[in-house]
Specification:
single chain, 175 residues, alpha/beta, Alpha/beta knot, 7-stranded parallel sheet
């Protein structure tokens, strides 16, 4: 099996995104951290890669945006991956990893040759309880404020950043 870097092996999957701006900004967010695999599951009527506002927000990332496949289900979007990580803003769910430990897990799995998909729910409702529970791993971005969640594109940026930093740290510590 050919060696895949974390940047080759991770797919960011937006599930039922509603706003085209977030789709474009998510493409930009992952590209700034060296990633290029974005996928959309049942995007809203306007949340399409070709929408004017998605294109506007995908500054220097239209290649990522334009290559994003559309899927009818999470199962289709993750059929060829070895690990699915669902994001959640819900507190009190057992077994949910905070972002940094989740990034280390994803790095370990990609270094072992696995492909990983990270699921992000839509802006209004997030992922359903069933979608979160159906993923073998879950992550939550801790927040100080009593805010139920953060913007979709911001969540994608934070996850991409932590994966990027984990990969950098691993590379620096490898002799």
């Amino acid at each position: 099996m050919p060696h895949l870097t974390i940047h080759d092996a991770v797919r960011f999957v937006l599930v039922r995104p509603h706003y085209p701006e977030n789709v474009g900004a998510a493409a930009r967010a992952i590209k700034t951290m060296g990633f290029r695999h974005l996928a959309l599951v049942k995007p809203g009527r306007l949340a399409r890669p070709e929408h004017e506002m998605a294109l506007k927000m995908a500054v220097k990332s239209r290649d990522v945006l334009g290559a994003a496949p559309l899927y009818d289900s999470i199962g289709e979007a993750t059929a060829d991956v070895d690990l699915v990580v669902a994001t959640t803003s819900r507190r009190g769910v057992s077994g949910v990893l905070e972002l940094r430990p989740a990034a280390r897990l994803v790095l370990e799995r990609t270094r072992a040759g696995d492909r990983v998909a990270i699921l992000f729910g839509n802006e209004k409702t997030g992922l359903t309880h069933e979608e979160v529970a159906g993923a073998p791993a879950q992550l939550r971005i801790p927040m100080a404020a009593d805010q139920p969640s953060i913007n979709l594109a911001q969540a994608v940026q934070l996850v991409a950043y932590e994966l990027f930093v984990a990969a950098l740290q691993a590379r620096e510590s490898t002799p």
